[in-house]
Write a structure and sequence with these properties.
single chain; alpha/beta; Rossmann fold; 5-stranded parallel beta sheet
Length: 213
């Protein structure tokens, strides 16, 4: 029994250290709120670097109260952990989420990503059952072409889950980012073949715009 307890403490310590690596970035976002008050009941965009690097959010959605709370390299369980600091305090009327990309790259299965996404969804809903929740599908990236089968499977699982929920939407950017031939569109990606160019973000904006509240 003592060995089991020691193992639990060890795992907990590793998780704490893992979360600690984001503290500087999270604290910087919180400091921004002190320098400039965030809008009331905004639309919060959260998730990994594809959200963090979306520099044209406010221009893409004029007239909407947008708050970018993405942090680069994050996985879904980390967004869940920091939701109490990056999502819930703002009492958002809508949360737009992009997660799962880094999870799959780290070796997680579609089922694991789905479970973590469900935890995030439920955490937001427990705070306000009427909050609109939107998921942007995991994008196809040339640098992660080996992950395409699990990306499509994860997207399908999350799409099916959201279809059964109220005040929830699934936004398909996956198919929009492919050429008619089904191949990758190189113009949508930076030199790393992972992060997006302005052209990529224009596609995202066109896909997301109709579902914003």
């Amino acid at each position: 029994m003592s060995l089991f307890i020691s193992l639990l403490l060890f795992v907990g310590s590793l998780q704490a250290q893992d979360f600690q690596k984001w503290e500087k970035e999270i604290s910087t976002l919180e400091q921004q709120d002190k320098l400039s008050a965030p809008p009331r009941k905004p639309i919060v965009f959260t998730g990994s670097s594809s959200i963090r690097l979306w520099k044209t959010l406010n221009q893409d959605f004029p007239g909407k109260k947008i708050l970018n709370r993405g942090f680069g390299g994050s996985q879904t369980f980390e967004v869940v952990h920091f939701a109490d600091r990056l999502i819930l305090p703002y009492h958002p009327k809508q949360v737009v989420i992009y997660v799962g990309d880094n999870d799959l790259a780290a070796g997680k299965t579609p089922e694991q990503v789905m479970a973590d996404f469900k935890s995030l969804f439920q955490k937001i809903r427990e705070n306000n059952r009427k909050t609109n929740i939107t998921f942007i599908s995991i994008k196809p990236s040339p640098s992660r072409k080996n992950l395409i089968p699990v990306i499509t499977q994860t997207n399908q699982l999350i799409q099916q889950y959201l279809a059964a929920q109220k005040h929830a939407t699934y936004v398909d950017v996956y198919s929009r980012m492919l050429l008619p031939s089904g191949k990758f569109n190189p113009s949508l990606y930076r030199a790393d073949s992972l992060h997006m160019t302005d052209a990529g973000y224009r596609i995202w904006a066109e896909a997301v715009r109709p579902v914003l509240k």
